[in-house]
Amino acid sequence: MYYTKVDKINIILDIIKKLKTFPSVNETTINLYNDQYLFYSRFKELSNKWINEDKSYFSGKIYFEELGTHFEYIFPKETCDEPLFVLRKKNY
Prior knowledge:
Blueprint: H1 5-20, E1 22-23, E2 29-30, H2 38-52, E3 58-64, E4 69-75, E5 84-87
Antiparallel strand pairs: 1-2, 3-4, 4-5
Helix pairs in contact: 1-2
């Protein structure tokens, strides 16, 4: 079974909610879903593509310049596969 457009919208909305209240090191939250960040437009473009293309699958990395690290993502086409969107730690 494939993710529907409604399923995909709900997944993306959940990711956005988490980005808006991302935990910071000083036990507060920071809004990472902010159009001032370069990552914002790339994430928006990618999520719109996934939502609007039937049976689409996307995976890869989105670099977050301001943090010097990246988000890894998997936006699957089938419901048997879980979506993934995680911030990876910096590699020193």
